[in-house]
């Protein structure tokens, strides 16, 4: 899933490549992705692209007062095409293409960008709105993980009573962090994913805040400026524990462990984070009953 660093990099990529262009035809290959009808998506045609935006993991393109906003969900992505096929895509089918936006640049080029989604569970969402705050999932966001102050961070954590892994990934508590970067933040801060927010000391929260900013800013620095096609690989290359089950921890050499749920899993280092204790794996617990 694209998280704050990748969405920030995509916003920067569109700022450099799309702003200044004029929107041409907008092709919808999967009608289910469009979550709004007023203004109609055809209102984007002929408008200048004047800016980009990010709200948590939402990505937006300002088309002279009308916003095209997307949430890429777990398997969505943005793909830039310098020479797109001029023929409209066929709706439906097995293609990952959900939506294509054609552009006309001042230099006379006619590129496009695709919003795609792999897999069978289609959750990618697109809105066309006059104000991004009209979108319910944006209106409910907590403070942005890179904009929140340390005092605000401590306050929002103390207000929620849940495991710190869940709090970091709850977009209504803190916006922008998902499964991957929460694993990396907690590993770097040497905090158990199962630690509860209410039991964390002020010192531990301060350490977590500093670590969160360090991990995210480092990922943003590595991501911004990358071609959109290379961002996924850049994200994977920077991970120390996430998606590295069974491999040695780069800090202590212990084996990276995993806790699995129905649709996802997270990784951690027992030595660095839990005092050597292996956390209960819900999937294995069910199998052993």
From TrEMBL:
Its cofactor is Zn(2+). It catalyses: Hydrolysis of DNA containing ring-opened 7-methylguanine residues, releasing 2,6-diamino-4-hydroxy-5-(N-methyl)formamidopyrimidine; 2'-deoxyribonucleotide-(2'-deoxyribose 5'-phosphate)-2'-deoxyribonucleotide-DNA = a 3'-end 2'-deoxyribonucleotide-(2,3-dehydro-2,3-deoxyribose 5'-phosphate)-DNA + a 5'-end 5'-phospho-2'-deoxyribonucleoside-DNA + H(+). GO terms for biological process: base-excision repair. Transmembrane segments: none annotated. InterPro entries: DNA_glyclase_Znf_dom_DNA_BS, FPG_cat, FPG_N, H2TH_FPG, Ribosomal_uS13-like_H2TH, Znf_DNA_glyclase/AP_lyase, Znf_FPG/IleRS. Keywords: DNA damage, DNA repair, DNA-binding, Glycosidase, Hydrolase, Lyase, Metal-binding, Multifunctional enzyme, Zinc, Zinc-finger. Residues 2-119 form the Formamidopyrimidine-DNA glycosylase catalytic domain. Signal peptide: none annotated. Residues 240-274 form the FPG-type domain. GO terms for molecular function: 8-oxo-7,8-dihydroguanine DNA N-glycosylase activity; class I DNA-(apurinic or apyrimidinic site) endonuclease activity; damaged DNA binding; zinc ion binding. The keyword Cell cycle does not apply. Belongs to the FPG family. This is Fpg/Nei family DNA glycosylase. It comes from Antrihabitans stalactiti.
């Amino acid at each position: 899933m694209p998280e704050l660093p990748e969405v920030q990099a995509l916003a920067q990529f569109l700022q450099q490549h799309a702003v200044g262009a004029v929107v041409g035809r907008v092709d919808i290959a999967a009608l289910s992705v469009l979550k709004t009808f007023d203004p109609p998506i055809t209102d984007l045609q002929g408008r200048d692209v004047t800016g980009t935006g990010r709200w948590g993991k939402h990505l937006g393109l300002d088309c002279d007062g009308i916003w095209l906003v997307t949430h890429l969900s777990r398997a969505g992505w943005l793909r830039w095409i310098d020479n797109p096929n001029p023929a409209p895509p066929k709706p439906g089918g097995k293609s990952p293409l959900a939506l294509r936006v054609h552009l006309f640049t001042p230099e006379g080029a006619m590129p496009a960008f695709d919003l795609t989604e792999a897999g069978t569970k289609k959750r990618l969402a697109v809105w066309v709105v006059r104000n991004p705050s009209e979108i319910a999932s944006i209106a409910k966001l907590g403070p942005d993980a890179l904009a929140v102050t340390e005092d605000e961070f401590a306050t929002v954590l103390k207000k929620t009573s849940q495991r710190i892994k869940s709090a970091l990934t709850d977009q209504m508590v803190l916006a922008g962090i998902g499964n991957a970067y929460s694993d990396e933040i907690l590993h770097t801060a040497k905090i158990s994913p199962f630690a509860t927010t209410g039991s964390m000391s002020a010192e531990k929260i301060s350490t977590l805040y500093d670590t969160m900013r360090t991990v995210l800013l480092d990922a943003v620095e590595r991501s911004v400026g990358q071609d959109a096609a290379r961002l996924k690989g850049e994200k994977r290359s920077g991970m120390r524990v996430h998606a590295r089950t069974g491999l040695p921890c780069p800090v202590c050499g212990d084996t990276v462990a995993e806790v699995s749920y129905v649709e996802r899993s997270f990784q951690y280092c027992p030595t660095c984070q839990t005092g050597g204790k292996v956390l209960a794996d819900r999937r294995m617990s069910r199998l052993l009953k």
